[in-house]
Amino acid sequence: MLNLPVQEPTSARRTERSNGPRPAVYSEPSSEARTSGLALLTVATAALLAFAQSLPLSELRPPLLASLHVLVKMVGAAIALAISLLTWNTRRAQPLNFVIAGFGFFAVAVLAAMQLVMAPGMPGLAAAHDANAATVMLLSTDGAAIAALLAAALGPAHPGSPRALRAGIAVTGIWIAASIALARAALQWGPGTEQAAAYAELALAATALVAAGLLFLRHLRGAAAFALLAMAALLLAIGVAGGSGMPPLQHAGGIFSDGYKVLAGLLVYLALFRKGVLLPWHQLVESGRAVEVDRRRYKQLFESAPDGLLLVDGSGRILHANPAAAAMFGWASGELTGQRVEVLLPAALRHEHERARTRFDVSPQARQMGRGGSLTAARRDGGSFPVEIALVPQEFGDGHSTLCIVRDVTERRQLEETLMRQALHDALTELPNRRHFRDSVTKALAHAERHGGTLALVFIDLDNFKQVNDSFGHSEGDALLCQVARRLAQTLRGGDLLARMGGDEFAVLLVGAQQADAAAVAGKVLRVLEPDFAHGGQAFKVGASIGITMYPTDGRSVEELLSNADLAMYRAKHRGRNTWCFFEQRMTERLRERSSLQRELAHATKRGQFELAFQPRVHASDGALSGYEALLRWRHPLHGNVPPDVFISLAEESGLIVSIGEWVLREACAQAARWRAAGAADLTMAVNVSPHQLRHAGFAACVQQVLLETGWPARQLELEITETALMEDPREVAVLLHRINALGVRFAIDDFGTGYSSLAYLKTFPLHRLKVDRSFVQGLQVEGSDRVIAASIIALAHALGLEVTAEGVETADQRDFLREQRCDELQGYLFSAPISAAQCEAWLTQKGIPCRQSLTPHCLQATYVCE
Ligand SMILES: Nc1nc2c(ncn2[C@@H]2O[C@H](COP(=O)(O)O[C@H]3[C@@H](O)[C@H](n4cnc5c(=O)[nH]c(N)nc54)O[C@@H]3COP(=O)(O)O)[C@@H](O)[C@H]2O)c(=O)[nH]1
């Protein structure tokens, strides 16, 4: 059986000793029944004594009577001595008032013995047999007993300090010495002191009665031992009063008087015995039982604890191991006892552990679970596993030992690793994520700063990914991202950190790289993305715009480097995508300028800084005017004309495009209505619509409202929507366009050929026109793919029942080719640049509604070269 160390730690015992005896011994349990039994016994004995007093003892012969009296006195002295010895031996378990009472009874014992020595017929003192001296001794003895009981009644019930004990001993000694001195003085007194002695006896008896009352009062307050003392004081009072005026010996009355005193002494002995011996013994038995209960409880806890518990002695030997520890380390229960604790460690760690244990033994300190990190432990079969331990130094009487609490953290460690992996890696591509990347850059920066190194951050944003995602669905998009991640990972070196920053953004950290290295990596990235990506029978083309920042020239913190790389990447996008760009300081200046422009844009409408320009569209067949495209112009008081390419994107970023777009729509329709009123009845007004406007819930209502307000016929309003905007959320957009189309409004798909539209979806939109992007038109001069593409787009549009407008027509060759391909409408500088409303009005007024008439150069005062 496992014997747990349940004794109190020596340190605890030391503390207790220094604090003196436990106060618990004074919390005497009430024992009313036993006290009443004793009271009955006392009363019975007293009654017996009273009865005995009626016996004819006085008829006994004087020597016999004297012997009997001496015997009674000897018993009394012996009891008094027993009381004082008991008190001395139990002085640590007794309260101070009882100890002082016990010391008083020592005086009683000594003085009673002297009385015996002084008795007639006893060999003894020189002054023996003197009646006065004997009376003094008797009075001193009785006085000592009564004083002792008074001390018990009035004295403090707390433990006595050594000083108080010494004082008690001194008083006792003084009392004895004073009594002897008085007895000696009494030798000089003449006869006739009997009367005074009788009064003194009566006074003592009265004092004993007072003591009895006080003791009884203390008994009533809950201390059972005082009941015995109260009864003792009462018997003493009877004894003292009964013996008053009698000669000390050879008198039957004196024997009875001393009998009461003997009885009183017995009760005092019993009271002190109960207090000093019985109660502590009961408490000892009780605490022994409690200790046993505790021992069982702790044993149960030890054995059922889910953690491994090992009690290891100072030499590293296992004293006890609980079943969980045995199971954890692959040992049978009980086998670990007696083993060295190092058997639980892999061989390679044992020596180091022994040294650490020796250091620990020199100054053992408790260690909390997991504080010292995790350790590797060994199973009996040689397998290892991670553990955390807590150490609790133990100090018992048999030397110090250590309780080791061992926890197998294998599962927790696996979970932590999984969580850590999830927290630092992208779930889709399994590449390090943004957080991981930032952490790595932070560390690399710290290292580079210390060692004067360099870093390059290559920020990669895929071109056209959004269109793929929107057109072909997210699963295709995800598959494409995984392929991109694989290709990038394969093309980079092992030491380079490739991360997915989110969406279609990737980043590479190149430690120790110079500009040339970063440029080489950017070039490699573009090359590796060049071949088509294939998934689900589809082929996708994905390019990338790459921004590069260098440490330390372009920034010194992660935030700065990342945001500058982002700026450089945007620059690359503006440069036409699929290229890379190093960060330059002026990019941040441009950013600042853009922010300030964006703030001013918010006030441009109410400050009247917006104007519309109108670019004519002509019929390809005869060059007759078919309509206008409204184009927004921002006349900035300081910056002059801000190009729409700049401010439209700012308006889109800030959301201002919704209100600005509404202003354009209203102005364009109002203007067209005025021209209509002037006779230009059949013209179409085309207005550009941003994807942000389409996403705005009130767009359809806004169009309806504008048409109502301006009176412009819905069928003569054409909303131009870019291919990309259509494909952002094709289903939602189709629903919206059908709602607006129901009003009669027509739709043109703008910049066709630059985006990624699905022909399947094109059929679902209520489209009327397709505008061929000017990038194809401008490539028509030379024989090549653009001619083929433009021709195909026109044919496709016609096949879908759409009219075709070619944008950016600048030369007659372009016009002729487009005519040949049966393009319906033409728009471009060849016919007119965008012109102001006033210029258009001047022309309309002069010519009188020239609908379906050839435009002439002079009338539009613009670069107009129509034949
Ligand atoms: N959502 C809105 N977008 C608008 C609005 N107003 C303009 N825009 C868009 O801004 C982009 C730039 O427009 P802009 O600078 O006005 O350029 C237009 C023409 O000036 C230009 N163009 C026309 N003919 C020629 C030509 O022969 N050669 C040549 N190099 N450029 C020419 O093309 C632009 C019109 O393009 P498009 O809209 O695709 O028909 C532009 O994307 C505008 O759409 C607005 O109110 N809302």
Automatic annotation (TrEMBL):
<feature type="transmembrane region" description="Helical">
    <location>
        <begin position="131"/>
        <end position="155"/>
    </location>
</feature>
<protein>
    <submittedName>
        <fullName>EAL domain-containing protein</fullName>
    </submittedName>
</protein>
<feature type="transmembrane region" description="Helical">
    <location>
        <begin position="98"/>
        <end position="119"/>
    </location>
</feature>
<dbReference type="InterPro" id="IPR043128">
    <property type="entry name" value="Rev_trsase/Diguanyl_cyclase"/>
</dbReference>
<keyword id="KW-0812">Transmembrane</keyword>
<dbReference type="InterPro" id="IPR001633">
    <property type="entry name" value="EAL_dom"/>
</dbReference>
<feature type="domain" description="PAS">
    <location>
        <begin position="294"/>
        <end position="346"/>
    </location>
</feature>
<dbReference type="Pfam" id="PF17159">
    <property type="entry name" value="MASE3"/>
</dbReference>
<feature type="domain" description="GGDEF">
    <location>
        <begin position="453"/>
        <end position="585"/>
    </location>
</feature>
<dbReference type="InterPro" id="IPR035965">
    <property type="entry name" value="PAS-like_dom_sf"/>
</dbReference>
<dbReference type="InterPro" id="IPR033425">
    <property type="entry name" value="MASE3"/>
</dbReference>
<feature type="transmembrane region" description="Helical">
    <location>
        <begin position="224"/>
        <end position="246"/>
    </location>
</feature>
<dbReference type="InterPro" id="IPR029787">
    <property type="entry name" value="Nucleotide_cyclase"/>
</dbReference>
<dbReference type="Pfam" id="PF00989">
    <property type="entry name" value="PAS"/>
</dbReference>
<dbReference type="InterPro" id="IPR000014">
    <property type="entry name" value="PAS"/>
</dbReference>
<feature type="domain" description="PAC">
    <location>
        <begin position="371"/>
        <end position="421"/>
    </location>
</feature>
<dbReference type="Pfam" id="PF00563">
    <property type="entry name" value="EAL"/>
</dbReference>
<dbReference type="InterPro" id="IPR013767">
    <property type="entry name" value="PAS_fold"/>
</dbReference>
<dbReference type="InterPro" id="IPR000160">
    <property type="entry name" value="GGDEF_dom"/>
</dbReference>
<feature type="transmembrane region" description="Helical">
    <location>
        <begin position="196"/>
        <end position="217"/>
    </location>
</feature>
<keyword id="KW-1133">Transmembrane helix</keyword>
<feature type="transmembrane region" description="Helical">
    <location>
        <begin position="38"/>
        <end position="58"/>
    </location>
</feature>
<feature type="region of interest" description="Disordered">
    <location>
        <begin position="1"/>
        <end position="30"/>
    </location>
</feature>
<feature type="transmembrane region" description="Helical">
    <location>
        <begin position="64"/>
        <end position="86"/>
    </location>
</feature>
<feature type="domain" description="EAL">
    <location>
        <begin position="594"/>
        <end position="848"/>
    </location>
</feature>
<dbReference type="InterPro" id="IPR000700">
    <property type="entry name" value="PAS-assoc_C"/>
</dbReference>
<keyword id="KW-0472">Membrane</keyword>
<dbReference type="InterPro" id="IPR035919">
    <property type="entry name" value="EAL_sf"/>
</dbReference>
<feature type="transmembrane region" description="Helical">
    <location>
        <begin position="167"/>
        <end position="190"/>
    </location>
</feature>
<dbReference type="Pfam" id="PF00990">
    <property type="entry name" value="GGDEF"/>
</dbReference>
<dbReference type="InterPro" id="IPR052155">
    <property type="entry name" value="Biofilm_reg_signaling"/>
</dbReference>
